[in-house]
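Supplementary Methods, section 5.1.

A reviewer requested that the exact input to the structure prediction be made available. We therefore reproduce it here, unchanged from the version used in the analyses.
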Amino acid sequence: MVMLELVKSQLAESSPSDVYDFDGIDGVIDEARDWLAERQAEDGCWAFELEADATIPAEYIMLNHYLGEIDDAVEAKLAVYLRNTQGKHGGWPLYHDGDFNLSVSVKAYLALKLTGEDVDEPYMRWARKAILEHGGAARSNVFTRFALALFDQVPWRAVPVIRVESMLLPKWAPFHIYKVSYWSRTVMVPLKVLAALKPRARNPRGVDISELFVKPANEQRFYQINPTGNFFGMSMLVIDFMARFVVPLIPRRVEKKAIERAMEFITERLNGEDGLGGIFPAMANALMAFDALEVPRDHPDYVICRKAIDRLLVLNDDWGYCQPCLSPVWDTSLAAHAMMESGLSANDPIMTRANEWLLGRQILDVKGDWQANRGHLRPGGWAFQYWNDYYPDVDDTAVVIMALHRADPEKYREAIERGTEWIIGMQSKNGGWGAFDADNNHMFLQNIPFADHGALLDPPTADVSARCLSMLAQLGYQKNHPVMAEGLAYLRSEQEEDGSWFGRWGNNYVYGTWSVLCAFNAAGVDMRAPYIRKAVDWLKFVQRPDGGWGEDCSTYWQHRTWYVSEATLHRRRDEVKTSTPSQTSWALLGLMAAGEANSESVDQGIEYLMNAERDAGNWHEEYFNAVGFPRVFYLRYHGYSAYFPLWTLARYRDLKNGGGKYPKFGI
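The structure derived from this sequence is encoded token-by-token as follows.
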């Protein structure tokens, strides 16, 4: 009964605080704004580090040894990072302080061994023990097994059949390259070339990891798994087995033509020094494909591909890592919002430089891969990276448009209208938006053995859809407009039983709920509606005793999000190790969007941000705050702990000083 009373008290309406009484908030805002301003590049952008897990630096080392281009100085720094990120369990996690992950651990171990680490060192013995206790390297995921096949550590039957001839299939075929997400597409096309040619890593030091297998790799009978566990997934395993008997019958001329088609796809999208798709795995696979086809190393395509990869390195005096990609458009657009929220005028040189830089990044001339489903649209979006013309995304586009509109709607009218036209055209049939493609929801493909990572597709999600609706509402689109009405209905249909929304691109339900509440507020929805109050109650319920919010990356595992109370079975959304500045900021922005600026919960959250450890405008945050692929790949945006707290404190100050009950802008 005590627990039930505690829950009731947490869910009860918080008593309002009528007086703005946090001494020093103006000074903190000024200090944080100055810190952020000092980190603006000369060209006007902000570009913070983007960190993933041990996978990317490990794969960088593996790539060098595959090519025979060993760089001991760089790899020694990456090895320090790998040693420092080893978990208490002996292996490597997908995110800071996370659980053991077999696939990451196998790659990290192999990478350390490639750099010359002694396998008898305590940390190597510890890692080896953990890997074997979890089934050994044979139980790692498809991408890891593919890498091991290239290094001749497992037979090629250890990977699913992925044939390059699929590049020749018509669009109506059950599997077509445009039926998967952009990230899958750019990674898989060069991978198909490698699967056809089956090259062998040069591996100059002759390293092997046979000690990581419970039984010898060639004696392992079953490598493929049913990714979904259902009948259709089992059927796909049968098809994969049967396909192995068909592959030898495919004429060599067909394979050759398919490889040519694949390489045309790659070279057309090389994207200069920003790289294929702007993401490391695609770039690395492309470089290995060039090598497998014996493209000379001084060939311009090889040179620029290598340069794009090396550009991702972050090297310090004695350690370093490799980023999965770069995030300047995202960082700049969000930082611009925070700076304007803090009181910086649109005419300030800092904002002028930022806005002009963003304006220059709009993609106006290239019809990217999105045209496969929306060929009638004119280009008009923004990408995530410096340049990625074939792959703009609606999330970045919406945030950029809101920033430009907020700064000067008339000055940037043409860019805003062009981007808005593109976003409206990218709405999916169910009313929502995916990140990079429209109607990319061919769910049957999640059953193929290759899809064991569960992130093959790019279907609509609540957080991305909310951002698009927030943008349209800020521009003046009314909630009864067909695009708005369908989008709002989609968001209502996606609400979880406990009142929250899933966060596809940020951790997790706090991120999703913040995004959706901002959209509903901007759209003029009644923020006293029961489903809105349910979301507000949920945010208050998961607030931590220190006043902050935090949500562990493990909430993406559904089986970990249930708990039993005295009354019934509930969803648990509060698996958390600590409060973080980023997630606290999202929760507060969400509550303020719902009209809760005067609530005790918001006051306590603001006090947490005021007291949290920081260096000027950089709040301390070790924990990962975003996701690439749920349950597979996580991210830490180093800029989130700077511009989101600044944004939040400034918004709180504005609302407390008579700025109205609700925020004025869409985000």
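The domain at 2-49+326-426+462-656 is CATH 1.50.10.20 (Glycosyltransferase). These observations are discussed further in the main text.
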